[in-house]
Amino acid sequence: MAAELAALQAKYAQEAQRRIRPEGTAQFEELQNSGVDRLRHLADDVWADHAALDAAPPALRDGDRVKFLIAGAGMGGIVAAVRLVQAGFPADSIRLVETAGGVGGTWYWNRFPGLHCDCEAYIYMPLLEELGFVPSHKYAPGVEIRNYLAQMLEKYGLADKVLFRARVERLTWDDAGRVWKAGITARRGPRGEEEHRLAAEAQFALLTAGLLHKPQVPKLGGVGLHGFGGALLHTARWDYGVTGGTCEEPFPTLDKLRGKRVGIIGTGATAVQATPCLADYAGELFVFQRTPSAVYQRNQRATDPDEWATEIAPRPGWQSERLLNFASVTARCAPPGTKDMVNDLWTQQSAYSALTGDPEYALTPPEKVPELIGRFLAMDEANRSALRAYTAEVVRDRDTAEKLTPWYPVWCKRPTFSDTYLQTFNRPNVHLVDTDGKGVEAATEHGLLVGGTEYPLDVLVLSTGYTSPAYDGGDPSVRAGVEVVGRGGRTLSAKWAEQGATTLHGVATSGFPNLFWLGAAQTGVSPNQSYVLETEGTHIAHIIAEAHRRSGGLDKAGLAIEVQPEAEEAWSMRCAAGAPRFAVQMICTPSYINNEGHFTDPNATQEDLLKKARQSPWSAGLPSYIEELERWRAEGSLSGIKFTVA
């Protein structure tokens, strides 16, 4: 067995090496920052109703002062705002600043055909119990989630508290006034082209940028993607003018693709959902693959009212219980005999805890990493075998089935789930173009070049993902695109560059009073990102509300809440101590998870390595992280937090 696992590791390393490019993430360019108009405009907000937004009174005006300023109105920003309202702060004291023309974050921007959540909707959609909302399906369609997030704002009186088409560019702490001074760029006009700046002040500031929110495209040779003569679109900004259909349907009628030769670059989670929809209408569909995804059955079904009432939501607190159950099962820390409430293919991926953390291997020393990799490979063995058999059973052509079968362990790429994707390759109009790990070589005026063969296309869909979450070094200001200047003129980025990630509980840092954020560094990780956001938002609201109560009331002005240096250093070093167990990613194929295979810098110094280690998640998994926060709150002293009143 040991020899077999060693051979498997060697194969994985060899396959991964074939796909690693020396330029790393530089092989891609962000759409918003492209120097080519055609590519840059692929990131335009095509969903905004500019006339209605221009006519509406702005939620924030130049010179306004508010208690809470939240940068971002995606799921994280919405949940954070709602938790503040639930903690007792009035909705009118809160303002959200959002770059888009509507709320929802990733669910606003992404409207491609076939879009659904890939975690069960009953745990993915936050505050279902509070709103009394029943998702239509076990995995809800994107349009339903987008509308639901807007309903959350309505429910808590926050719908008119969002400044749309605006970006917080800079936050500067004013020690004398005990406020954050915000520089904001806002847009108006028929296409949002009129730019103006405004200044506002806020007692508290929150950064809520998502993990995957900057769409990217590969830099191809030949004429470049912009030189392709046909229609071009990115899945992060679907163009229904090209395909037909509307974004108000889960499975729109893409009738403009009939008879067309359509190509799609990418086979990740987005492409797995969109590809079957394209295949239904395209004359011919060419799927360009660098690395296959692990595609498991979704087993989608409509929500059954009887099952909802008796099994899913039978008693108060049902969603909190179900959330923790899912997190515990996937982190392999559920007590023996625990019922698997969600019971889908996610909860059967025990080896995925290699990526998210678990209590058993939380503090693995560096010298034990090879042994740890072997243990997780052994843990994944039955899963690998079952997936290989399932793929071979579904896909009729043996060669195509082999090319669609992942060769890497489950933790290396986010698993995907579909009842139709693999089946699509049995259709005569669908062609898999496997690039043998090399990717597409070049674009031409008429199509794409792979292995010296040109594939003529009329329409090209780019399902090429987003900038890696690893690019920011755990710095929340970089992720949010906000320059944050704290006490003494020191920027948050300067602190991160000098010390590495430095937080208490992953949500705040010293030298930056009344600043909080939702992030991934030094926090728990789960396949269900919405639970992470809810956990962080709840914790932040508790800290702020409790400090107010102890200082004289929720309307207290002049209150400054700040992390103490010794507390954040202790937390940061505990996170760094858990970093070696995440070295299991060393055998993985390049992806956004491991910074396109550049997991470590071969020229890094010991100081560099320690800084990188400090940005690790909580290595014992999300349930353990939650326990730490609950223990800290129950202790009652707000240990590590200093709060003063002017």
Automatic annotation (TrEMBL):
Question: Which prosthetic group or cofactor does it need?
Answer: FAD
- Can the keyword Acetylation be found in this entry's annotation? no
Name the keywords, alphabetized: FAD, Flavoprotein, NADP, Oxidoreductase
Q: Does the keyword Transmembrane helix apply?
A: no
Membrane-crossing residues?
Answer: none
Q: Name one Pfam family in it.
A: NAD_binding_8
| UniProt feature coiled coil, ranges | none
Reading the lineage from the top rank, the first entry is Eukaryota
What Gene Ontology molecular function terms does this protein carry? Answer: oxidoreductase activity
Q: Family, per the entry?
A: Belongs to the FAD-binding monooxygenase family.
Question: What name is this protein filed under?
Answer: FAD/NAD(P)-binding domain-containing protein
